[in-house]
Design goal:
The complex is a heterodimer of chains A (about 150) and B (about 150). Chain A has about 150 residues and is α/β, with parallel strands linked by helices. Chain A is built from five helices and seven strands, in the order E-H-E-H-E-H-E-E-E-H-E-H. In chain B, strand 2, helix 2 and strand 3 form a beta-alpha-beta unit. Classes of the chains: A alpha/beta (about 150), B alpha/beta (about 150).
Chain lengths: ~150, ~150
């Protein structure tokens, strides 16, 4: 199967959300990149437990820092953000794109916001500050799949 | 549009879906029985401080929901892994009810009876694995259903 998209979690605060992202990655054949520091001790074994019975299918890449991740840059970086961004529906996804979510508590620092290749926001006409990071990633991955499914 | 969860089992999922309903200003309809109490901390934790803003309705069972709301068949959209059509296919009605089953068993046969052409699935890319969790599937589906209303 051709490469679809990838998922990146920037300094995730909460292990259950990272588990959900890994499960999302498995269902869509999307590798997951974890960028340290995490808000919890990162353990591949524990993470795979959280991804339930999909452990053997999970492809997880662990990066020591933003700088280490950026140096390897796995694809076009597309940040899901609430700030100054293109509407999800107007963004043209490409195969190999890496969809990145920020920290639950603080998003990403300006330096990272400025360094990415695309910024996508998910409409919230009812208000509220944000959606859960794993929920947001699922919404974006489903839209990318709609656009790229051929 | 309205979101319907039929006998949800896991408080996290209902809370997370509730949070998304607030973000989209959609009513959340729950069909009893639940596998948890709505007072549980887990619901509010997943829904964060949004849970208190959820426009929530509850029904004792599917029949009382049908009796009260009297939905047209064309406005009912059921979501199941085995649904014959993709969620990307339909033009969703403005007054659509998006209906999701419980985490362990999906929607009961009596709800789906006669509704074969109303069942949809979210396509994924790995045929080896079973499914996403309910909150992830439901929220991705809800946004797809709302796409044209949201300008997409």
């Amino acid at each position: 199967m051709s490469q679809f998209v990838q998922i990146a979690a920037f300094q995730p605060d909460l292990a259950p959300n990272l588990g959900s992202l890994v499960r999302l990655g498995v269902c869509f054949n999307a590798p997951v990149h974890v960028i340290e520091p995490c808000g919890f001790p990162f353990s591949l074994k524990l993470l795979k437990t959280r991804a339930l019975d999909y452990a053997e299918h999970a492809e997880v890449h662990h990066h020591d820092s933003w700088e280490a991740f950026e140096a390897k840059k796995p694809g076009r970086l597309v940040l899901l953000t609430t700030k100054g961004a293109t509407d999800l529906w107007d963004f043209k996804f490409q195969h190999g794109d890496c969809l990145m979510v920020g920290r639950e508590s603080a998003g990403v620092p300006d330096q990272v916001h400025d360094a990415v290749d695309g910024r996508v926001k998910i409409a919230m006409p009812g208000g509220g500050r944000s959606l859960n990071v794993a929920i947001s990633a699922g919404i974006a991955v489903a839209e990318a799949h709609r656009q790229l499914r051929g | 549009m309205k979101i319907v969860l039929v006998t949800p089992e896991i408080p996290y999922n209902t809370g997370a879906i509730g949070r998304t309903c607030v973000a989209l200003d959609l009513e959340l309809i729950l069909i009893k029985p639940y596998g948890f109490s709505l007072d549980e901390k887990a619901v509010r934790r997943a829904g964060q401080d949004y849970w208190k803003h959820v426009h929530l309705s509850e029904y004792d069972n599917w029949e009382s929901f049908l009796l009260d709301r009297k939905p047209q068949q064309e406005s009912l959209y059921f979501f199941e892994e085995h649904g014959a059509q993709s969620v990307y296919t339909p033009e969703y009605q403005q007054d659509a009810y998006l209906v999701f089953g419980c985490e362990s068993a999906g929607l009961p046969a009596e709800v789906l009876d006669g509704m074969d052409d109303r069942v949809f699935h979210l396509p994924m890319r790995n045929p080896l694995v079973r499914s996403l969790n309910l909150a992830n599937v439901a929220t991705a589906v809800i946004y797809q259903a709302m796409r044209t209303q949201l300008g997409g």
